[in-house]
Amino acid sequence: MIRVKKGLICAITTLFLWSQAPIAIKYLSAYFDVNTQNFFRYILAGLFLVALYYKEIIHEIRKLSFLSLIIPATLLFLYQTAFVTGIYLTTATIAALLLRLTVIFTSFFAYLFFKEERAIITSKSFIVGTAIAMIGATLIVITSGQIIDNSNVNILGSILIVLSDILWSLYLISVKMNLRNTNPQVLSSLLITLAGTFFLPISLIKKSIFAVLHAPPFANLLMIISGIMFVGVGNLLNYIAINELGVAIPSALQLASPLLTAISSIVIFHEEMPLSKIISGMFIMSGCSLIIYSSYTKQSNIKPH
Q1: Distance (Å, rounded) from C-alpha 68 to C-alpha 88?
Q2: Could you tell me the pTM of the whole model?
Q3: Distance separating alpha carbons of residues 225 and 73, to the nearest angstrom
Q4: Using CA atoms in the order 226, 229, 235, 239, what is the torsion angle rounded to 10 degrees?
Q5: What Å distances lie between residue 112 and 7, 43, 73, 138, 163, CA to CA?
Q6: φ, ψ for residue 197 (rounded to 5)?
Q7: Cα 162 to Cα 239: distance, rounded to the nearest angstrom
Q8: Distance between CA atoms of 157 and 159, rounded to whole angstroms?
Q9: What does the alpha-carbon distance between residue 84 and residue 99 come to, in Å, rounded to a whole number?
Q10: Which of 30, 3, 87, 52 is nearest to 228 (CA)?
Q11: Which of 175, 195, 223, 299 is most buried when burial is the number of CB atoms within 10 A of its CB?
Q12: What is the mean pLDDT of residues 50-65?
């Protein structure tokens, strides 16, 4: 029970952190291109974690092979690239809708690879909770005031978003497999730093890396904070949640992210909160409550490695 509570606390905290990331990314987009922003946020997050856990890294790194690190780091890099590129090629509404498919892909792969998660994934509370939350997530984006114009929707962009869903799900599966050999602190430090270096060559070729010299101080400060908190701390807590709960529950709880992002948008960008969004939020929170309930009722079947 203690491990389940620890996992849920980490998963819910990750939810709050990651729900705020789009706000920071939207602001930073005015000063940095996608690749440069990704490079600095990932490198800063990785170096922060390495500095924090360098003793554990030195002790544990011998247990990990280079291949075991390069695969999830590459999946993380490809996910970030496909997802952000997909957003630029299609509408925000389509992207938000397709992003919710991550829960389905993650649950599917978790069912295939991990026997200990099958009891949760096939439980009525998890299935019903996920379905209710998916309805809420769908409603909150289609009632956001954006009109889907099929003539402006780039098919390639939609394909890239779906591809990013699959890449992220596979990345989570590879993370859980690696957690069998080391702890979340070491793994998150190494993978985020390694993935961050993959963005460097493109930034150097485009010379966009020097944009930090011309950006206002607040933009650079926000990039530092968002990198450390949303990428570094967020991934670390997600790794801990996966270690304690598996991959299905933390992924499913992310269905509440659009609601929290919308709430922040109201405060920061003074967006309206119509009744439709309130109702959608109730669907999401009800669904997530059932998902949390499933983690308790099936906790005897959770055997983290």
Answers
A1: 32
A2: 0.76
A3: 22
A4: -170
A5: 22, 33, 22, 26, 19
A6: -65, -25
A7: 23
A8: 5
A9: 11
A10: 52
A11: 195
A12: 87
